[in-house]
Amino acid sequence: MDKKIIFSGVQPSGNITLGNYLGAIKNWVDLQKDYSCRYAIMDMHSITVRQDPAQLRKRTLDLLKLYIACGIDPEENLLFIQSQAPAHAQLAWVLNCYTYMGELSRMTQYKDKCAQHADNINAGLFTYPVLMAADILLYQADLVPVGKDQMQHIEITRDIAGRFNALYGDVFKIPEGFLPKAGAKVMSLTEPTKKMSKSDENPKAYISILDDFNVIAKKIKSAVTDSEGVVEYREGDETKAGINNLLTIMAAVTGRAVEDIAADYAGKGYGAFKADVAEAVVEHIRPIREKYDSLSGNKDYLVSIYTKGAEKACAISERTLQKVYKKVGFVL
Ligand code: AQP
Question: Which residues of the sequence carry a binding annotation for ATP (predicted)?
Answer without folding.
Answer: 11-13, 19-20, 147-149, 186, 195-199
